[in-house]
Amino acid sequence: MSVIRITKEFQFEMAHALLGYDGPCKNIHGHSYKLDVTVLGNVKENTSDSDEGMVVDFGIIKDIVKELIVDEYDHSLVLNEKMKIDKSQFEFMNKLIIVPYQPTCELMLVDFAKMIKENLPANIQLHSLMLRETPTSYAEWFAADN
Known about the structure:
146 residues, alpha/beta, 2 helices
């Protein structure tokens, strides 16, 4: 059997602010994020399964990431719980996400990796994630490093 890596790309829009940051990112601002999700596994061979010749159907990866990340974070505002936000000030928003960390590209990747790994089929491993925050800035997470 051959071990192959496959990658599915996703996009979402999200705003955040960085608590205590010494720069303009302390203010609420948004990004057009691009997330690459790479998994690895054995290519199915000599089976009568409908996904014969695949590591995993791209649709399975799409469904997992769309439900856990894209649908949740797209057009949301993500803030650190240490900001002590009065949620009543944001009642006009239905997508305020409060996280227990600074919502940087790096820490969001750690969070995303945990969510995705917990929901992958048993025979599939998360290999890497790349989260692009701007056209020239991104962070990467690799299973081999963690």
